[in-house]
Amino acid sequence: MYLFGASGHAKVIIDSLKASGKLISGLFDDNPDVKKLLEYSVYGSFDQNRLGDEELIISVGLNHIRKKIVEKLPEHIRYGKAVHPSAVISEYAFLGEGTVVMQGAIIQSSVSIGRHCIINTAASVDHDCIIDDFVHISPNATLCGAVSVGEGSQVGAGAVVIPGIKIGKWSLVAAGAVVMRDVPDNVLVLGNPARVVKRINI
Asked: Which CATH number goes with the domain that contains 44?
């Protein structure tokens, strides 16, 4: 397993991989000044020859950057997953390729999580939620049952989304928000109850 992105986010993914017994071969990062992360070598920009037939995880926290990296890389790359063993994941849940699930997260029955998502520390995703690609559910965020989150959106730390809410694409739910109505595409919502405060373009 290799990681692409030698950041703080990568450190948490490394913890999850090590705890689940997966071998980490090293990391790629475009910053030439970064040579090591924790005890692992950073090999510079992505190198298909070094990767070989090993799996890759995009270890970058920003959703739009993860998407850009995936779009630039060869289509045949095998993407892995990182799931910390302390996470509780229903056998009836689905996790897409490249997705990472951090310590203490809970993913309940009939949840569908797309590709290259982040389910962060102690986040809770309840039954029948649908999470699209490149989404980030931040630490301690709570999605109640049957919530849907569109591509590239982020639900901030400690936010609560009540059952049945639809969050659009590339939107941001601010930390601590309480979402009680649907959220359009490309907006920032905050407060309790959450309200749209501005449009965002990523």
From this structure: 3.40.50.20
- Considering the entire predicted model, what is its pTM? 0.95
pLDDT in tens, 85-112: 999 999 999 999 999 999 999 999 999 9
Secondary structure of 113-130 in HEC code, one letter for each residue:
ECCCCEECCCCEECCCCE
Is the sign of the CA dihedral 164, 99, 137, 62 positive or negative? Answer: negative
Shared domain check, 28 and 122: no
d(CA 186, CA 200): 5
Q: Considering all CA atoms of the chain, what is the largest pairwise distance in Å, rounded to the nearest integer?
A: 51
Does an H or E element contain 70, and which?
Answer: helix 63-72
Average pLDDT of each block of 10 consecutive residues along the chain (202 residues)? Answer: 95 96 95 93 94 96 96 94 97 98 98 98 98 98 98 98 98 98 98 96 76
Which residue among 9, 84, 127, 136 is the active-site one? 127
Q: Is 116 a known active-site residue?
A: no
